[in-house]
């Protein structure tokens, strides 16, 4: 069974599958060099990126993430402000500090290869890391797949995915029907059920504390994004809009003429801009879609009567329950199913969670989650210039507002609906499989094709 902490992971921008996953994979490779006792003999490292990781890797910081991961940095532990200076050193010829302690010669052009037109059969996001001794003999080779949301799987375990969980939980569920049946039988909300499952591995107070820590990182990201002036990295030097929007909205608010629904749009854009600039964010369930859940959560804190820490915990647990259904039955990877699997899933999680903390019944929560995905079906992933900026930042803003409206709509009705959440998840996955590769985080189609790169 997945954990709520698989869905919400504190990390760095701009991409869970292109930055967080590759850094974790490279860090694991460095650990393996140590465990297998071959670190001292290692004289050279080669990193090979395939498919989507190669095509959009530059804009998504994949190369930087992989190299810093080889130096034993983790997405949660690294200080985002140290990344750029360290990469400047490596690009200028500094030695690579494997596992943070063993230096090897490093040449970016020689040691990193981008196989832009080669896709490995298992997944669009693949990377292979090789370690060699001084005489050129191979010491270790591993292939990893970054399957979305910062999850990684190595080649040896690829076909074991989906096997029964090692840790038995009281309420095992694999689809929405099973989740709701457990809840009805036990008289639990989705949040209570997920909490009961989490408590197999740690006590309730620890789960609650960790969730509040995640909520605090989300909140800090909203606040930072609303203040952080300047331009986003990359060839387009896209202007950060959240600070000016924040000032304008505050002024309108003082005059009593601010549309309250502009706040969640602003919050989501603020987080997305932080993400785009490599800042500290929480995958929710991915980095590209990291603005939506925090924005709706912030809106709950700001505007819901009786908002409380308990409500925040319930919000995250419910959102995670919904996110798990997508992870188990479809995909949360833009490279696999397009943006419907990122922004669509985040909107579904936020709509269901917001509905739940406003007192929605199980049927209303399911309905909200289903509506949110139904109207993202077919959404493609076409980041301009391979950067998680356009259309991603605005798309997060629009989806946050949509999630709130959808929850409110579901609360006005009795929860009876034709299309079940399970059916819409299945439809999303089939639609994603039918989608051409050019619309799946390759920057070969859509806006990425029609918006030209600026001349240098
Ligand atoms: S278009 Fe959507 S899936 Fe693609 S990078 Fe942007 S947010 Fe992620």
List the helices and strands and how they pair.
Layout lengths: L3 H4 L2 E3 L3 H20 L6 E9 H5 L6 H9 L9 H12 L4 E3 L3 E3 L3 H4 E4 L9 E9 L4 E11 L2 E4 L21 H11 L3 H9 L5 H24 L14 H13 L7 H15 L3 E3 L9 H12 L5 H21 L4 H4 L5 H15 L4 H13 L17 H21 L8 H14 L12 H4 L6
Parallel strand pairs: 2-5
Antiparallel strand pairs: 1-9, 2-6, 3-4, 6-7, 7-8
Helix pairs in contact: 2-4, 8-13, 9-11, 9-12, 9-13, 10-11, 11-12, 11-17, 12-13, 12-15, 12-17, 13-15, 15-16, 15-17, 16-17, 16-18
This protein binds iron/sulfur cluster.
Iron/sulfur cluster binds next to α17.
Write out key terms for the chains shown:
456 residues; alpha+beta; 60s Ribosomal Protein L30, Chain: A; two-stranded antiparallel sheet; 50% helix; binds iron/sulfur cluster
